[in-house]
Amino acid sequence: MPFVNIRIVKEVIASDPEGKKAAIAAKVTEAIREATGLTDSDVWVVFEEVLARDWYLGPKNVETLRAG
User: Fold this and answer.
1) Dist CA 1 CA 45 (whole Å)
2) What is the DSSP code string of the chain?
3) Which CATH number goes with the domain that contains 35?
4) pLDDT tens track for 14-58
5) Residue ranges making up the domain that contains 34
6) Pfam families this protein is in (predicted)?
7) Considering the entire predicted model, what is its pTM?
8) Which residues does residue 44 pair with via DSSP β-bridges, in sequence order?
């Protein structure tokens, strides 16, 4: 069974977290299903939401980078 762990900056999906996660999960599941022939129920997708201030690119966090 494929297990897909998606880490995403929480603020990216803040306007509609459930809707955006459902859309992402559907597309990821479809891609795996098409590539492997597995069924939708064989694909597990888990989301981990990380605050922008806790996600770093090198020495700076995403919150700081977005603020300019």
Assistant:
1) 11
2) --EEEEEEEGGGGTTSHHHHHHHHHHHHHHHHHHHH---GGG-EEEEEEE-GGG-EETTEEHHHHHH-
3) 3.30.429.10
4) 999 999 999 999 999 999 999 999 999 999 999 999 999 999 999
5) 3-67
6) Tautomerase
7) 0.89
8) 3
